[in-house]
Amino acid sequence: MIEAATSQRLTVTTPMTTPKRAGYGMPPEWAPHAGCWMAWPCRPENWADLERARATYVEVARAVARFEPVTMTANAEDAGAARRALAGVAGASVVVVPSDDSWTRDSAPTFVVDGRGRLAGVDWRFNAYGGIYEEYGRTRNMARRILDLLGARRFAAPLVLEGGAIHVDGEGTVLTTTDVVLDPHRNPDLTRADAERVLCDYLGADKVIWLTGALDHDNTGGHVDTIACFSQPGVVIAGSEMDPQDSQYAVLQENLRRLRGARDARGRRLEVVELLQPRDRTRDVVTYSPSYVNFYLAQRAVIVPVFDDAHDEPALETLSRAFPRRAVVPVRSWELARADGGIHCITQQQPAAAPR
To answer: pTM for the complete prediction?
Structure first.
């Protein structure tokens, strides 16, 4: 296993049991869901306006709950307020799970299933994105607590990682970024070869495609879910910028180049669908990273962040073509973008499989 600390060298040995060895793998996001996990906003310093952030979470929950159940976790002191806010949202419920943060994609389990329909979860090590927060003890235990609630098997991963750092196609391929996985503040001295071995072992995959580069004002350091995602096997939707003078142009062009030159685990060249980033990324003289790629695939729907931007409609049209059998549901998401997040960041799908 990998022994991780921000100031110690990593050593790697072969773990006795991994999800892959036990017959588990991470399904793609478009596979059937049992529901969606979210977490009630609780860290005031994350938000320009905490109450507006909570209102945005309610709107996202309302949109998702039209298509699948939503379980909102909350700290005990916030549970009553969360229940009152969600009282009119059919299909949404609240459970008490302690957390310091509200980015469920990053701190809830990465769910995996096996061939017999059993549910389990990967519990990645969490160190607050390389230590950007001092307090994260409750968040670090969030995945374990959710798996305990579900009665599902837990695989303790030896890697410091967040769920927003990975996307899978369900056929053996993982998308991620070197900036996060090989970050010395997360996994010091981890080699790319060892990282690939661990990612494949814990996601039930065979190949990793590496992208690069954090966008403007991205506290995660470069999560892939703001940059690119699979929409089906062999097809990737990727952020794009047309202006060479734009600060994000070089990173996004480099990732498009890498994707077009890559092959997936089955040897296919990838089809790349470009999705223009919002044109206006500045609020109160700060440049952020709102991203249309950071959408959530619910059952029969795509829940898409929009920003009152000139590129909103083209993005919705692109996603309608990419998912012709799904409803495309826009939700205004500037409050999330100002906190370096999006709709995908605050949601985590639970696959439709029976707990053990």
So the answer is: 0.94
